[in-house]
Design goal:
The chain has nine helices and 20 strands. The protein is of the alpha+beta class and about 350 residues long. The strands form six sheets. The chain has a five-stranded antiparallel β-sheet. A four-stranded mixed β-sheet has the order 1-2-5-3, with helices on one face. The structure holds flavin-adenine dinucleotide. Flavin-adenine dinucleotide binds next to strand 3, strand 8, strand 12 and strand 13.
Length: about 350
């Protein structure tokens, strides 16, 4: 546990703050009160004051994994703690400390510029560094949890700053301790351990294909560029069309269930998972049910990627939940599989 000094400026308050530009779905939402957090020291007095006035609160990073209501009651804490530095280097690893409000992709670019490869498969994931451990962001066979040394956070239950080790964070597929205790921890800083030994991780089909003609082993920057190119082709740009990336998690099912499905649907897409389980491609399940390109009023299923729900404008959280339910019901009826929604419903 760390103790922090007082004397930091109070968090800046904005009443009735528009959040349309701070959620990638582009939903028209307003926070009753918004507080900009630029230093960790602002958090204890702010939370104390909110507690005394019985005002609810939550943290918002870049808003790329949330579904916001039209009126977000209580206090919304806008995470803007910045700064990154190499803290320590030992024989095997480099330890990098980064503020929770830094942009994730900009940070990945910075690590590569510092000659610290490892995070390139996670390029172009939107959002902040502080939110990355919440759902243990992952892409192209790599998860952030593998690279985390520790997390500095404010524990609102203990009303104290804590440092959580990688093991304590309990990282799993799109899961962590933070998801089990929503709104308990405010991540202020992330310390990454980047191993000096590096090897290319291109076993995911899209990446393997990208480098199939290569005569030499790909460099970290070549993988970074390939990941950016693939993502730009596959995923809609939230600046152009509202979305939160993959809307459903890939479901984990028992092997027995998988074996009965593969008999009925030999072309089903699946991946290895934990012992006794198989991970199904949620996009394939949705596509097979004929939803790709479906439009339901102001929302729809992206025409190039069935896993992405898009918002065309003037829609609400309810429109998104309605289309999600339509998809969940049909997928359940067809495959006996429940699709879990990935974004956080605030
Ligand atoms: C086009 C697109 C592509 C995407 N691709 C991927 C992908 O490949 N892999 C992947 O894993 N995700 C992906 N995502 C989802 C999203 O980018 C990640 O989940 C990201 O980490 C969210 O960051 P954020 O800052 O926007 O978090 P927000 O959406 O602001 O918040 C997400 C949740 O984390 C909480 N939170 C945020 N910051 C903090 C903090 N400092 N302390 C405590 N709690 C906090 C919030 O309360 C909320 O519950 C994608 C999203 C989009 C729009």
């Amino acid at each position: 546990m760390n103790s922090k000094k007082n004397g930091s400026p109070p968090a800046k308050l904005t009443p009735n703050k528009a959040l349309k530009d701070r959620n990638t779905f582009g939903l028209d939402s307003r926070a009753e009160f918004a507080y900009e957090i630029t230093t960790a020291e602002q958090i204890p007095p702010l939370l104390q004051a909110l507690k005394e006035q019985a005002i609810s609160w939550r943290v918002l990073g870049g808003g790329s994994n949330v579904i916001l209501p039209t009126h977000l009651l209580g206090a919304t804490l806008l995470m803007n703690i910045t700064g990154q530095a190499i803290e320590n280097v030992d024989e095997k690893s480099t330890f990098v400390s980064v503020g929770a409000g830094e942009n994730w992709h900009t940070f990945v670019t910075w690590t590569l510029d510092q000659g610290l490869p490892g995070l390139e498969n996670l390029a172009l994931i939107p959002g902040t560094v502080g939110a990355a451990p919440i759902q243990n962001i992952g892409a192209y066979g790599v998860e952030i949890g593998e690279y985390i040394d520790s997390i500095e956070a404010f524990d609102s239950e203990a009303h104290a700053f804590v440092t959580l080790t990688r093991d304590e964070c309990q990282f799993a597929y799109r899961d962590s301790l933070f998801k089990q205790y929503p709104n308990r921890f405010i991540v202020t800083r992330v310390i990454l351990q980047i191993p000096k030994a590096w090897s290319a991780r291109i076993s995911y089909a899209d990446l393997t294909k990208q480098f199939s003609d290569a005569t030499a082993a790909p460099t970290p920057k070549a993988i970074f560029a390939a990941v950016c190119q693939i993502r730009n082709q596959k995923l809609p740009d939230p600046k152009v069309i509202g979305n939160a990336g993959s809307f459903f998690q890939n479901p984990l099912i028992d092997i027995a269930h998988y074996e009965s499905l593969i008999k009925q649907f030999p072309e089903i897409i699946s991946y290895p998972a934990t012992p006794g389980k198989r991970k199904l491609g949620a996009g394939w399940l949705i596509d097979h049910c004929g939803f790709k390109g479906l439009t339901l009023g102001p929302v729809g299923v992206y025409k190039h990627q069935a896993l992405v729900i898009v918002h065309y404008g003037n829609g609400t959280a309810q429109d998104i939940m309605n289309i999600a339910k339509t998809i969940q019901d049909k997928v359940h009826d067809t495959f006996g599989v429940h699709l879990t929604i990935e974004p956080n419903i605030l």
